[in-house]
């Protein structure tokens, strides 16, 4: 099934559901994403963004645009910057899969965490803003936003390990002993509940943040597909995991980079400032949370690879390229698991 957007059907539906809408519509697909296909909708009056589920057969609970719409709508007016949500279409008959419409927010994204082209003070400010927004997400008042039921109760890591293990096995294309060993280790080292239950983004990294066109303020957090109610250290560890990757276009990490010379933060500084912002004690046993994020990313990329092989990926060529990193994430996770420092 093609991901080509039927703009005539979109315009017809919006005419009856989006106040102030006036067509015709031109659509331009954003490149690079491996999750839910996203399009810039241009109309004579204003621009919008449409985000849809990908076509084809999907894993259960995957690509839930309905949840993305709900959480971002709930966060309006909080300290977490999000685009304004307009309408959700759950009728698959309109364009072949559910979709939602949100504001097109002017801004810029940064794929490389080394932030090339910026001066050290700007780099410092952007990382500090990244830290502030992460703390704000985890401090969201679940009752005030109506999100108390946005995720199940119980141990977040237990259910996440079970979920991603099942999804990994459902999409596996080859035997990977390191991944199986990592799953066994995580199963045996799930930390006990510590009372922290909050909103988590699930894929928090620099390139999922939109910054002001000419400043360092975050104007929108993007890609809420994996968000739920869970434990905050998974998001925090995801940032540190991303920075451990190679400093390449695909790796999008900081491995081997002289961070101090560029005005970038160390892992320790980012974690310490986060704890300070949230008023919590230093984190013990961080290797578990970091190993978990390697495991989850390996499982996610395996799903991307499988969708690319099946012809359902948003960008098949890039999906296959990203799928080659699954063994590296599994190995890194296993090394981290054994690091008790």
Folded structure, characterized:
The protein is an alpha+beta fold and 341 residues long. The chain has helices at residues 7-17, 65-74, 120-138, 142-145, 156-171, 177-188, 233-243, 259-262, 267-278, 286-310, 316-323, 326-337; strands at residues 26-29, 38-42, 47-52, 85-89, 99-103, 198-200, 209-211, 218-221, 228-230. It folds into 2 domains: 7-103, Phosphorylase Kinase, domain 1, CATH 3.30.200.20; 120-337, Aminoglycoside 3'-phosphotransferase, Chain: A, domain 2, CATH 3.90.1200.10. The chain has 12 helices and 9 strands. The strands form 3 sheets. The chain has a 5-stranded antiparallel sheet with strand order 1-2-3-5-4, with helices on one face. The protein has a two-stranded antiparallel sheet with strand order 6-9. β2 (38-42) and β3 form a beta hairpin. The relative contact order is 0.14. The mean pLDDT is 92. Residues 27-250 form the Aminoglycoside phosphotransferase domain. This is Putative aminoglycoside phosphotransferase. Keywords: Transferase. GO terms for molecular function: transferase activity.
């Amino acid at each position: 099934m093609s991901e080509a957007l039927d703009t005539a059907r979109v315009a017809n539906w919006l005419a009856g559901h989006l106040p102030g809408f006036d067509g015709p519509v031109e659509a331009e697909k954003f490149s690079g994403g491996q999750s839910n296909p996203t399009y810039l909708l241009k109309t004579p009056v204003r621009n919008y963004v449409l985000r849809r589920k990908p076509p084809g057969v999907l894993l259960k609970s995957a690509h839930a645009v309905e949840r993305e719409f709900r959480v971002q709508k709930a966060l309006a007016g909080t300290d977490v910057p999000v685009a304004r949500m307009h309408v959700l279409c759950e009728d698959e008959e309109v364009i072949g899969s559910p979709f939602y419409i949100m504001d097109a927010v002017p801004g810029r994204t940064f794929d490389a965490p080394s932030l090339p082209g910026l001066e050290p003070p700007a780099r410092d400010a952007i990382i500090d803003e990244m830290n502030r927004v992460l703390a704000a997400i985890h401090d969201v008042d679940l009752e005030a936003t109506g999100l108390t039921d946005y995720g199940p109760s119980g141990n977040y890591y237990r259910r996440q390990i079970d979920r991603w293990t099942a999804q990994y096995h459902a999409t596996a294309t080859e035997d990977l002993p390191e991944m199986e060993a990592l799953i066994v280790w995580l199963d045996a080292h799930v930390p006990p509940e510590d009372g922290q239950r909050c909103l988590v983004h699930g894929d928090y990294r620099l390139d999922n943040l939109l910054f002001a066109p000419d400043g360092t303020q975050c104007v929108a957090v993007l890609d809420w597909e994996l968000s739920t109610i869970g434990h905050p250290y998974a998001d925090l560890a995801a940032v540190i995991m991303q920075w451990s990757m190679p400093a390449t276009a695909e790796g999008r990490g900081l491995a081997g980079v002289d961070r101090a010379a560029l005005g970038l933060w160390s892992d320790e500084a980012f974690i310490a400032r986060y704890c300070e912002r949230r008023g919590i004690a230093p984190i013990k046993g961080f290797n578990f949370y970091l190993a978990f994020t390697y495991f989850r990313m390996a499982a996610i990329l395996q799903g991307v690879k499988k969708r690319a092989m099946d012809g359902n990926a948003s960008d098949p060529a890039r999906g296959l390229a990203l799928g080659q990193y699954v063994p590296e994430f599994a190995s890194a996770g296993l090394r981290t698991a054994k690091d008790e420092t």
